[in-house]
Protein: Methyltransferase
Organism: candidate division Kazan bacterium
Amino acid sequence: MKTQTKVNNEPTLFNRSRFKPTGRPLFINKSKILNEIEKLGKEESLVSLRNSVFSLEDELRSVKTDKAGILNIDSNGDAITMSQKYIFDQLDQIAESQTIDRAKYYVERFEKAITQVKTSKINDINLNRWKEYDDIRTDSLWVIDKRDSTGVHTAGYWGNFIPQIPNQMLRRYTKKGDWVLDPFVGCGTTLIECQRLGRNGIGVELQESIAKKAREYISFERNEHSVITEVVNGDSATINFSEVLKKHNKKSVQLLVMHPPYFDIIKFSKNPNDLSNAPSVEKFLEMMNTIVGNAGSVLEKGRYFVLVIGDKYSKGEWIPLGFLTMNKILQRGFLLKSIIVKNFEETTGKRNQKELRRYRALVGGFYIFKHEYIFVFKKR
């Protein structure tokens, strides 16, 4: 049995200056960092190990202090990229261990994070370096201050998807090269994120003019991964998705993303097949059910379906449109994996009507909508 010797009374012999690592990426010489980690694993006491860790951290602060050449990548070097914060967090965890055995366990885990890649079947997240993905959300409450407006993303189309949602969902539920289907593609937000992240995307838009705009926006976004994106002008209730995929020699998609109209809150067109023109909630649910069935038929078994939808207030009554739609999808046999509540402050409508909305809420005895739902389903 291994003995674990605590050395709480041993002094810390290395004094670190104040330093706050950032999330910026560092280009690391793999063989040299592994050589330094191997040295850590051979230390026999916590004092010597801690001092070795602190010396290594000092070298990693900048090229000027890097005596081992870990940050100096030559043309033939075996380079890897890791965030500065992640590296320092791992080294700090080693240094803060209370026993030598625990410290060496963390050393071995850090070595594994550098040498081995462990991913799941549905995404590219390296589980051996899971702490590096601190920008990927895992809780069920999302408070988003403002939409991502980088690149070609635009808020000019009222009711448009905020890019952060497809970005998160693509990273959680797809791998590079996977295929994504968005039956309500609008101005192309999902496909823009597909192009950025190296996923192939197909979007369907009912209005020809909007479909044209989507193609234009997407064409202006860099396609450094050389993926395929296609915007189809048509009705997602009747379009033959199998035929669309067949053109690309595919039979299924790995992620289904839907951001439909929230019934008649915003009128997007005069087309009777537009969900925003449904004559009743019941008809809306019927039309939505048809689209889910049609698009869901090409979703690969065991893969995910993301629905973003909000509720509606009409004639003094709160209509739980999100949960009514959720129940329709569950009746189709999908498995509910998560319900995320998303609050987004900066929309054009909210920005211009804050005082009026508050007055109406006080008069009408209701509470102002500040959330939408992100339902995550899995195809059985």
About this structure: The first strand starts at residue 25 and ends at 29. Residues 176 and 198 are 5 Å apart (CA to CA). The chain has two domains: 25-116, 141-378. The domain at 141-378 is CATH 3.40.50.150 (Rossmann fold).
